[in-house]
Amino acid sequence: MDRVLSGIRPTGYLHLGNYFGALKNFVRMQEENNCYFFIADYHSLTTHPKPGDLGTNIKNVLVDYLAAGLDPEKCTIYIQSDVPEVCELTLLLAMNVYVGELQRVPSFKEKVRRQPNNVNAGLLTYPILMASDILIHRADKVPVGKDQEQHLELTRDFAQRFNHFYGVDYFKLPVAYNFGDHLVKIPGLDGSTKMSKSDNEASCIFLSDSPELIRKKVMKAVSDSGPTEPGQPKSQAVENLFQLMEAVSSPDTLAFFEEAYQKCEIRYGDMKKQLAEDITSFVAPIHERIMTLRNDDDYLRKVAKLGAEKARESASKTVNDVREIIGIRKL
Ligand code: TYM
Fold first, then answer.
1. What's the mean per-residue pLDDT of the chain?
2. In what order do the strands lie in the sheet with 76-79?
3. Average pLDDT over residues 274-281
4. Is the CB–ligand 1 distance for residue 8 below 6 Å?
5. Active site members
6. How far from 138 is each of 4, 70, 208, 221, CA to CA, in Å?
7. Ligand 1 pocket residue status of 197, Cβ below 6 Å
8. Nearest residue by C-alpha to atom 19 in ligand 1
9. Which atom of ligand 1 is nearest to the CA of 143?
10. CA 175 centroid distance within chain
11. Which one of 31, 62, 197, 221 counts the least CB within 10 Å of its CB?
């Protein structure tokens, strides 16, 4: 049985990018694998959320997970900070990770560009914490979007380095995973190549959006003035609409609009109407479950408690093994 793990930072509601990048695969995998899915609240601290907001966001992500189909009976759903063993593993792994290599990580350099006034040490050591999340359950597969590929590569480096340094074959080398042959990147409605809440909230469709809001957002999506000759390459904004359609619509629908585009007969208004309808059919059942789960604090607390217990059991086993390998042994 493969061990599968994934996580999402609690920065607000989950959007379609999170769903197709990390969650959809997981919902399918939980039937046949030993799956862990967690809320990466330690990771979200790098951007200094307000304490009140953090608590609300953790709850919202838990609700979204459950509404999207994660089943606490079939997989382990937990909040990262309920499993403090991950901090110890981070510290232990950090001894074989070099400051220079962390400074060269593209996501770190990007953060330095974006938040020059908050280049905290947590940002620098982020990849070690992420590696610990994965290695602490000795995961084989990690469902993630394309943007996390490099972090997975680093996780493999750190795992391999540990094995080599101590002459053991302890950590498995986990792979970034998506069904199909490539990791996905769901684009935004604003013409950007990645749907991202931190870039532009209006470019995101959240799983908690109502049908009216989805329609409003999609109809406002950026497009262009239309192709003027057959076979003309698509602009990024129009390519995005097609990619979103590929994610939620039937192959026939996609083929219909693709042909219309190629023949220069496409009407973006019609395409957006169809896209809005297909996104709505896709999101509506999740939206409905979100509305119910939001009010069930007792159930949410129960899920988090059960998840924490299961996750700590697996995590403490790994930390004890690692201590033993390193030479931290009981007197
Ligand atoms: P985060 O919170 O930014 O995103 C959570 C997951 O959603 C995916 N994702 C996307 N996939 C496709 N298209 C998009 N537009 C899109 N936007 C987001 C991300 O690739 C990710 O899979 N560092 C991680 C959280 C994390 C984690 C882990 C993930 C911490 N520890 C261990 C896996 C394993 C992050 O910031 O993801």
1. 96
2. 76-79, 34-39, 3-8, 141-143, 175-177
3. 98
4. yes
5. 111, 194, 197
6. 9, 20, 32, 41
7. no
8. 145
9. 22
10. 15
11. 31
- Relative to the CA of 145, which ligand 1 atom is closest? 20
pLDDT band at 276 (very low <50, low <70, confident <90, very high): very high
211 and 284 Cβ atoms separated by less than 8 Å: yes
CA 217 / ligand 1 centre spacing (Å): 23
Residue 98: partners with Cβ closer than 8 Å, 6 or more residues away: none
180 or 284: whose pLDDT is higher? 284
Provide the token pair at 40: 């990466």
**For position 18, what pLDDT does the model report?**
96
Please work out whether the CB of residue 209 comes within 6 Å of at least one atom of ligand 1: no
Return the residue whose CA atom lies nearest to atom 36 of ligand 1. 9
3-state SS assignment for residue 120: coil
What Rg value do the Cα atoms of the chain yield, rounded?
A: 21
Q: Is pLDDT above 90 for 202?
A: no
SS3 content of the chain, % helix, strand, coil (to 5): 60, 5, 35
Q: Which residue is listed with tokens 């084989």?
A: 140
CB atoms within 10 A of CB 328: 11
**Is any atom of ligand 1 closer than 6 Å to the C-beta of 64?**
no
CA distance 135 to 131: 6
* 130 CA closest ligand 1 atom index: 31
Distance (Å) from CA 99 to ligand 1 centroid: 23
pLDDT band at 239 (very low <50, low <70, confident <90, very high): very high
Q: Distance between CA 17 and CA 207 in Å, rounded?
A: 10
C-alpha distances out from residue 30 to 58, 97, 179, Å: 21, 32, 14
3-state secondary structure of 177: strand
User: pTM higher than 0.90 for the full model?
Assistant: yes
